[in-house]
Amino acid sequence: MKLFLDANVLFTAAYSENGISRTLFLLAGAGKCSLCTSAYAAEEARRNLLVKAPAKLAAFTTLLARVTLVREPSPAAVLRMTKLPLVEKDAPIMAAAVEAGAMLLVTGDRNDFGHLFGTTVEGVQVLLPVAALERVLG
Prior knowledge:
Strand order of the largest sheet: 3-2-1-4-6-5
Radius of gyration: 14 Å
CATH superfamily: 5'-nuclease
Structural class: alpha/beta
Largest sheet: 6 strands, mixed
Number of strands: 6
Distance between the termini: 11 Å
Number of domains: 1
Number of helices: 8
Order of helices and strands: EHHEHHEHHEHEEH
């Protein structure tokens, strides 16, 4: 099962050793799922860690090495996602998950993705980390 991780999930996994987001990395290490993200999402997580928790950058770098970086989405895919609607900063996240062939987009962003939780967009189901964890453990 291929999971696309949003920036906030990457941030949280680096920030907290014991949280659900970090558990997804443990499950991937055990072969229960695979993790991917885009450079766009990874850079957003890195910037936020730099400002809010610079001491966690080393953990972030270690975790990111275990995630496949997918190519950035096409402009056409990003445009389609703005019609969901998604704000300009989040449309590339959803589009990258779709174009990467992910089964799940894992995000904790209730403000911008909340209206999509539990729905499937072009083959990718949008879930909170706890729901993704339950799905992987299935």
